[in-house]
Amino acid sequence: MDSAKQIIRDVPDFPKEGIIFKDITPLLGEPVAFQKTINSLKNRYADKSIDAVVGVEARGFIFASALAYALGTGVVMVRKPGKLPYKTFQETYSLEYGTDTVEIHQDAFRSGQNIILIDDVLATGGTMAATLDLIQKNFENVKVLEVAFLIELDFLNGREKLKDTPIYSMIHY
Ligand code: AMP
Fold first, then answer.
1. How far apart are CA 16 and CA 86, in angstroms?
2. Does 23 contact ligand 1 (Cβ within 6 A)?
3. Burial class (CB in 10 A: 0-12, 13-18, 19+), 43
4. Which pTM was predicted?
5. Does 150 fall in a domain?
6. Domains in the chain: how many in total?
7. Per residue in 20-61, pLDDT tens?
8. Best substitution site from 79, 127, 169 to test ligand 1's pocket, by max atoms within 8 Å of Cβ?
9. pLDDT higher than threshold 90 for residue 71
């Protein structure tokens, strides 16, 4: 994954001062690097009997849909509030200032399904921790096999928020 690491761009002070934003758009625009990224994830999960890949809005959708297609599974969206049209479950979580909410359709999974969750960046872990709670509280008979990220920012210790769930990050900073 060294080639992917080289191609990801640091954008200082975005979206606010002090944040170094990991910009994945150069990787998405580079056909070989994007294909290698998805193939690497596909190889990791191909023999794990995955039924669905869950993507977290918005950049998570890109990886979730490409990986789901490669694995031949369904894809499920976890979205910001008010975006999903059917009945939803919701989970609200704390941000540095205020709160945010994630939602999922109530019929997103069937009992007994094995799923993985994916997002582009694991930073503080708040979003993925809320996504895990959202799924584990409302879908007791669904098994989260692993949570995957393209990038993990190790210095933020986000993985500590994800408790006992296995975590896989392709690239570490
Ligand atoms: P988290 O702090 O782990 O809840 O991160 C929330 C979301 O913000 C993730 O889905 C990331 O896509 C995004 N994010 C957080 N920090 C960064 C960063 N430094 N670069 C790019 N995306 C980020």
1. 34
2. no
3. exposed
4. 0.97
5. yes
6. 1
7. 999 999 999 999 999 999 999 999 999 999 999 999 999 999
8. 127
9. yes
Beta carbons of 51 and 37 less than 8 angstroms apart:
no
Q: Is the CB of 22 under 6 A from ligand 1?
A: yes
2 falls in which pLDDT band (50, 70, 90)?
confident
Query: Does residue 2 fall inside a structural domain?
Result: no
Residue 120, ligand 1, Cβ within 6 A: yes
Q: What is the CATH number of the domain that holds 128?
A: 3.40.50.2020
Q: Domain for residue 128, yes or no?
A: yes
d(CA 72, CA 80): 26
pLDDT 10s digits, 94-122: 988 899 999 999 999 999 999 999 999 99
Q: Is the CB of 158 under 6 A from ligand 1?
A: yes
* Residue to substitute in 92, 120, 121, 122 for testing ligand 1 pocket (most ligand atoms within 8 angstroms of CB): 121
Domain-embedded: residue 31: no
Alpha-carbon distance 8 to 68, whole Å?
23
30 assigned to active site: no
The domain of 151 spans 47-172
Q: What is the per-residue pLDDT for 163?
A: 84
